[in-house]
Design brief:
Elements (H helix, E strand, L loop, with lengths): L16 E2 L2 E2 L5 H18 L2 H15 L5 E3 L1 H7 L3 E6 L9 H14 L4 E6 L3 H13 L2 E7 H6 L1 H9 L3 E5 L6 H14 L4 E4 L9 H9 L1 H14 L5 E5 L4 H7 L9 E9 L18 E5 L2 E5 L24 H9 L2 E7 H15 L5 H13 L8 E6 L7 H10 L3
Parallel strand pairs: 4-14, 5-6, 5-8, 6-7, 9-10, 9-14, 10-13
Antiparallel strand pairs: 1-2, 3-4, 11-12
Subunit structure: Tetramer of two alpha and two beta chains.
Enzyme class: lyase
Cofactor: pyridoxal 5'-phosphate
Length: 408
């Protein structure tokens, strides 16, 4: 499976490719469906009526624009750079995932599809998809690994309450990767009648581009808000990276602003040994380029080229590969990627809760932990923005168990 990546100038990238990464590696039965989806998305993107309906729902149903909040007490505690939080956790359903689910839901309706399938890890994409299906009157089936169902029990109940059927996946590690496999099998079988709402900026073309575009609103808003609040762009933007949807949404409008540092935070899990983390860009025991679930990107693999097991306390970051645009940003050096352990994320959760009264999702807590580490090393004139991608209500079971062990 593993191959050596060829670095290509991003400016020469073609549709569906991010430098050497991306592409469309799927069974023959899905090629026509992906071509149909690409054509429909390209048409919708240029349709003023489609965009107007999406913008109206984002504002009046989802709650955009989300605030850019100055975390005064956290800044004082850390010292150094001013810390701002982009409050995606305040969106309807509690995470950035609703941006993409709503956009793809409207696209599915435009294509005449009435049966929706999706996969979910932390449950936030599943909840967002179930919500949109209820809003639009569509049948909804969500695939979720049984391990993730155990970890995210509250979100499983929320999806079912919204009318979705949640199908547990026992195969493999029973996490996000396995849920995506089952969703793709369903799509292959029912491709004529079913739309697959993929939840992150990964998979076969056009998903990485389409999901990024639906989340681009995060950085578009943040850029204007930061200029209004500080009169300048942030020194650095920090976001957690599982598949990479919230991070690419937070980064995208700043890609051309070379003085703005872009920092992605992967799951360092229990430690750097392969199988104990989900840090695809880690130098030792990290990922190498390969193909997984329709796209060419960095993949955690064992010595035989098989997809390695992963671990993270946050179900949404527990994935063996990463979106192909992040792979390109990593290789070109436009973004840097670091990792945060489970323990550091748990501590960051407590710190943000007790300084600002904001309980972050465990995924987002990885970005908060990096901000807490980084801010004291920066000047007081620097500005650091964290994309707070989700709220922590869903993680109460994990938090109560893990923090009890630590005596919190």
């Amino acid at each position: 499976m593993s191959t050596t990546a060829t670095i290509v100038n991003p400016a020469r990238s073609v549709a569906g490719r991010f430098g050497a990464y991306g592409g469309r590696y799927v069974p023959e039965t899905l090629m026509a469906a992906l071509e149909e989806l690409e054509a429909a998305y390209n048409a919708a993107r240029e349709d003023a009526a489609f965009q107007a309906e999406l913008d109206d729902l984002l504002r009046n149903y989802c709650g955009r624009p989300t605030p850019l909040y100055f975390a005064k007490r956290l800044t004082e505690q850390c010292g150094g750079a001013k810390i701002y939080l982009k409050r995606e956790d305040l969106l309807h359903t509690g995470a950035h995932k609703i941006n993409n689910a709503l956009g793809q839901g409207l696209l599915a309706r435009r294509m005449g599809k009435h049966r929706i399938i999706a996969e979910t890890g932390a449950g936030q994409h599943g909840v967002a998809t179930a919500t949109v299906c209820a809003l639009l009157g569509m049948e909804c089936v969500i695939y979720m690994g049984e391990e993730d169902m155990r970890r995210q029990e509250l979100n499983v109940y929320r999806m079912r309450l919204l009318g979705a059927e949640v199908r547990g996946v026992a195969a493999g590690s029973a996490t996000l990767k396995d849920a995506i496999n089952e969703a793709m099998r369903d799509w292959v079988t029912n491709v004529r009648t079913t739309y697959y709402i993929l939840g992150s900026a990964l998979g076969a073309h056009p998903y990485p581009t389409m999901v990024r575009d639906f989340h681009r609103v995060i950085s578009r808003e943040a850029k204007a808000q930061m200029l209004e609040r500080e009169g300048k762009l942030p020194t650095a933007i920090v976001a957690c990276v599982g598949g990479g949807s919230n991070a690419i949404g937070a980064f995208y409008e700043f890609l051309g602003d070379k003085n703005v540092q872009l920092i992605g935070v992967e799951a360092g899990g229990r430690g750097p040994k392969l199988g104990e983390h989900a840090a695809r860009f880690q130098k030792v025991d990290g990922g190498v380029p390969g193909v997984l679930q329709g796209t060419y990107s960095y993949v955690l693999q064992d010595e035989n080229g098989q997809v390695a097991t992963t671990h993270s306390v946050s179900a949404g970051l527990d994935y063996a590969s990463v979106g192909p645009e992040h792979a390109m940003l990593h290789d070109t050096g436009r973004a840097t990627y670091t990792s945060c352990t489970d323990d550091a994320a748990l501590k960051a959760t407590v710190t943000l809760s007790r300084t600002e009264g904001i309980l972050p999702a465990l995924e987002s807590a990885h970005a908060v932990a990096e901000a807490i580490r980084l801010a004291p090393t920066m000047a007081k004139t620097d500005v650091l923005m964290v994309n707070l991608s989700g709220r922590g209500d869903k993680d109460m079971g994990i938090l109560s168990r893990e923090l009890k062990i630590q005596g919190v």
